[in-house]
Amino acid sequence: MPASLPLFEFPHPVETREELAPGAWVLRGFALDVAEALSGEIERITGVSPFRHLVTPGGRTMSVAMTNCGEVGWFSDRRGYRYTRIDPDTGARWPAMPPSFLRLARNAAHAAGFEAYSPDVCLINRYEIGTRLTLHQDHDERDRRAPIVSVSLGLPATFLFGGLARKDLQRRMPLVHGDVVVWGGPSRMRYHGVLPVKTGEHPLTGARRLNLTFRVAR
Ligand code: MD3
Ligand code: FE
């Protein structure tokens, strides 16, 4: 671009970093330049291991639809929550984690101060309008020193994050397309959830929100 052209003619959302709490970083717009590539990979992955509504051990069907890529995948049924090498719905290995996913997760972890991040799973969540995720902790992973990296795509959502006890005060945080959050250190085990996604339409994802969460499961 010629140096004489004013930058305001090329608006792009500004990338910012903010530490929400010790070990918890929100990297606004961090995934924007790879969002289309990520979306293409999600199409490919779900062609192999489709989105499905998992059943909790208590017998409830989750409103968020899920699938995975990586060495293992997160799964739930009446027998419990666990990580599996095989997708129980296809009988085959979960699709491999694309290099672009791993690169983004590493870069985000690095930006938040976590070196040599090596996730073995990416859980992919799909939120249709009205879908929510109730308050919970992510405690099915063996290594809790490793952070969780979360990437938001498509429709915006309000994220809830509390403390280490369920009753602790919850803060609300809007997350939009391209935002990345890194939850590590003392924030790794915070309770969190997502409020019902509001009606809308996003040019990349349509009437839904997609979320990637990278974890070190084993
Ligand atoms: C805060 N997903 O898949 S990611 C999940 O937007 C999950 O789909 C949500 O919670 C989503 O388990 C939120 C953000 C997130 C992930 C892990 C955390 C926030 C966290 C761990 C500790 C504290
Ligand atoms: Fe979670």
Your description of this structure?
By secondary structure, the protein is mostly beta strands. It has one domain: Jelly Rolls, CATH 2.60.120.590. It is built from 2 helices and 13 strands, in the order ββαβββαββββββββ. The strands form 3 sheets. Strands 1-2-11-8-13-6-3 form a 7-stranded antiparallel beta sheet, covered by helices on one side. It has a 4-stranded antiparallel beta sheet with strand order 7-12-9-10, with no helix packed on it. Strands 4-5 form a two-stranded antiparallel ribbon. A hairpin with a 2-residue loop joins β4 and β5. The mean pLDDT is 94. The structure holds N-(carboxycarbonyl)-S-(naphthalen-2-ylmethyl)-L-cysteine and fe (iii) ion.
Quaternary form: single chain
CATH architecture: Sandwich
CATH class reads Mainly Beta
Largest sheet, strands/sense/barrel: 7 strands, antiparallel
Which ligands does the model contain, each kind named once? N-(carboxycarbonyl)-S-(naphthalen-2-ylmethyl)-L-cysteine, fe (iii) ion
Strand content: 25-35%
Q: CATH homologous superfamily - what is it? A: Alpha-ketoglutarate-dependent dioxygenase AlkB-like
- Helix and strand succession? EEHEEEHEEEEEEEE
The number of helical segments is 2
Compute the number of structural domains.
1
CATH fold call: Jelly Rolls
Mean pLDDT equals 94
Helix amount: 10-25%
- Principal-axes geometry comes out as globular
Gyration radius from CA atoms, angstroms: 17 Å
Number of strands: 13
Separation, N- and C-terminal Cα atoms = 46 Å
Main sheet strand line-up: 1-2-11-8-13-6-3
Structural class based on helices, strands and sheet pairing: mainly beta
Uncertain runs are none
